[in-house]
Amino acid sequence: MIEMLDPKLIRNNPEAVKKGLKNRKAEASLVDRFLAVDEEWRKLTTEIDELKAKRNKVSDQIGEMKKKKEKADDLIAEMKGFSSRIKELDDEQRKIEERLKAISLEIPNLPHMSVPVGINSRDNLEVRTWGKKRKFSFKPLPHDEIGKKLGILNFEQAAKISGSRFVVYKEMGAALERALINFMLDLQIKENGYTEVLTPVMVRPSSMLGTGQLPKFEEEMFRCRDDELYLIPTAEVPITNLHREEILPAGSLPIKYVGYTPCFRREAGSYGKDVKGIIRQHQFNKIELVKFVEPEKSYKELEGLTLDAEKVLQKLGLHYRVVELCTADLGFAAAKTYDLEIWFPSENEYKEVSSCSNYESFQARRANIRYRPSRDAKPEFVHTLNGSALAVGRTFAAIFENYQQKNGTIQIPEALQTYMGGISTI
RNA sequence: GGAAGGGUGGCCGAGUGGUUUAAGGCGCACGCUUGGAAAGCGUGUAUACGCUAACACGUAUCGAGAGUUCGAAUCUCUCCCCUUCCGCCA
Fold first, then answer.
1. pTM of the model
2. Active site residue A352
């Protein structure tokens, strides 16, 4: 049965779990509801197990007697109807399990003890910045206007072929997007030791369950009409599911993947938000880092993963800040999250280009991903982490804004020039 | 789109109602043997849950679910998945 949190943790430390839930503004009474149903389930399970033990024993006896050509009619008569009683209890048990599962699915992950307690996103903590805001001798334009003027971003044609929240990249715009993808991939593969994967972008419902998009966030995803397939909202889904239902052998951790995929999001409920430009699109490109690690190392690995993502911004020379999300702003499955935010001069605002999270065993439980600590040891759940490195479209927009010149051209960051055929200006 | 075949332990693979508490093999671990190794021989080798201080014990799991039966890997039904061939196609 899928458990979101370790049931033993809830049984043994209900007060600690409640406190964690309160801190992230989740319903703490979930704990008491869970414990009540859990108790019911365990009582019934013990009873059922005893009945089944008797059934198995008597059936064996009957088999033994038949083998010896003895009459077993009395025993068979005695057992008539026995299984139907078991079946009734089995049905009851199944109903209880469904209730237990429904409650479990509602329980979010617990914040790590290092996460600052807060009541909303204003309590997020800026942990460091890199670089400085550029000083402009002219009024910086928003990225979409720059793109339109240069004729390399076209929103009208995108709307014609696909509707709002889509964009067509042209000429050096398309080339820049492509350069960013290759640059980001190469960096993680060659310098940070990640294994490259190129996965399907359409997945089954079972994969969406594995990483937690289903059942809660169904309305956020695009689904095929005639096939049971969803378009992925992030590469986290196919990559984390690579090892679903597996027991990874001792010594195989950490496993580090980097993958490029387009991502698809319906953005239901975001009407009116980020309507201009390419900040919030139904389809966007993203490079994703995913790690499978040993539990005791996962927080060290989170720091490393965040630095791996930051390195992209540093090489591109983009000023950014690292924000640690407070308990109230954490995503449903995350225990701790750092966001990377780039400064956008046209709005004098920082925008998220990466979110790096430690899920601890939360996803591993759902997706049943385990490992062996040593050769003969019992399997344990891995810890999973992932982070964007980076959202390509937003990085593209940030380059437009931060590298724009007074004459309307855009400088290409040095690190990208070899990926752009050596040119230095658009 | 059409047709066929198949899902059994870490892997291969037997198994059509009761010593199958899943044969046998491979792999792996330990031991015996050896100067050392190989071979050979022997022993062991799933997961989850419950109950336990622990050992032990119990229950479930042969793709999933339901049915028949005292008893199902095995019989019946429904579904899922995989493979192959034909057709179409980048």
1. 0.90
2. yes
